[in-house]
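Before going further, learn to read the protein records used in this course. A complete example follows; check for yourself that the lines match position by position.
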Amino acid sequence: MRATATATRQLARALRVGILGTGLIRAGGAAIGLMLQLYEASLGIPPQLVGLIGVAFYLTELGGAPIFGALVDRRGWRPLMLLGPLLAAAAVLLTWLTTALALTIALPMLFISRLLEGLAVASNTPATLSLLSAASGGAPALRARTTGLFQIAVIGGTAAGGVFGGLLYTQLGAYGFLALAGFYLLCWAVLLGVPGALPGQPQAHAHPNPIAVFRQPTLWAFAPAWVAVNGILGVWLNNFANQLTLNCVAPPTAQIASLCAATSDQLLVGDYSAATAGSIFTAFALVFSVGMLLWTRILPTLRPSLAMLLAVGGGLLTCALLTLINRQPATAGPPTLALAALGGALLVLSGFTPAALGVLMELAERNAADRGSVMGAYSVLLGVGQFIGGALGGVFAAADGVDGLIVLTLSFTIIAGLFVLLYRRLEPRPLLGQPA
C-alpha cells in the first residue's frame, strides 16, 4: 500500500512539474516572440523580413524534433527537458547583442538567434510530451485531464508571456532581453524537479529507425489538417503584433509609409502601443484557455474528427468577425458586440488542438518504445504549419495589412476543414475512452 501511494505521488509530481515547466517555457516563448516584433518595428524592418525571421526557428525545430525525440527514447526525457531553457536563454542573449550592431549585421544575427530558439523547442517539447504521456498512460480519464491541462499551460503561458513581454519591452526596451534570459534560467531551475524515470514504467528499447514511426497511416490521416490549423497560429503569432505597432505617424521607411497609406481604413493596423499589443494577445490567449477548460469536459463525449470539424466552424466564424472588426471606423468606438461574438468563436476554435493532441498521445501509448519519436511528430507538424503560416503571413501583411492576414487565415481554415472531412472517412476505430 505504501509503495502504491509513493508511486502515485511520484506520478502526480511528474505531471505537475511537466505542466508547470510547459507554462513557463511557453511564457518565455510568447514574450520573446512579441518583443522581437516590437524591436523589429522600432528598426523599420519590412514585414516580409519580420515574418521570415519570426518563423526561422521552425527550420531547426523541424530538423531537430525527430532527432531529439529519438534521443528521448534512448536517453530519457529529463536531460532534454533541461537543455531546452538553456538554449532559449542563449538565443535571447544573442538577440540582445544585435542592439549594438549595424542593421546589416543584426539581421542575420536575429535569424541565427531564432534558429537557436528552434533547437530549444525541439529539445523540450517532445521530451515533455513523452513524460506526460508516460505518466498518464493506462488511465483514460487522467490522460484527458493531462491533455487539457497541457494545452491550458500552453495557452495560459502564452497569455502571461504576452503581458510579460509587453511590460519588459515597455519598461526596459532592449534590456528586456537580458531579463528574459534570467527568466529562462528560472524555467531551468523548475525543471530540475523532473524525475528521470517513473515507477512501473518498463525500460523501452528505442526503434532502430525512428523515422519509420512517421509512416503510420493513423498519423498522416489527420496531419494535413493539423498543419493547416498550426498555419493559422503562425500567421497571427508572428505578424499581428508587428502590424498593430507599425509606426504610421512617422514611418521609418518608404515601404512602411506606403503600407500605412494603403491600409489607413483598417482599424488593426498601426500606432498601437507595445502594452496594448501585449494585452490584445493576452485577451485572445485567455479566451483560448477558457475554451480548453470547456473542451476538456466535452472531448470525451465526441469522436476526434467531429470535435475538429466543430473547431473549423469556429475558425470560419472567427474570420468573418475579424473582418468586421478590422473594417470598423476608428470614430465608431469599440466594436463591443463583434468582440463578444469573436470570443465565442474562439472558444469553439480552441477545441482543435486538444483533439489532435489526444490522437497523438493515444498513438504514443500504442508505440510506447517510440514515445519520443511520436511526440517529435507533434513538433514537426506544428513547426511545418507555423513556418508556412508565419512566412506567408509576412507576404500577405506586406500586401494588405491585417486584411491580408485574414484572407490567408480563411484559406488555411478551408483547407483544414476539407482534410478533416477526409480524415473522418478514414478515421480508425475509436480510441481508448472515446465514443464510437
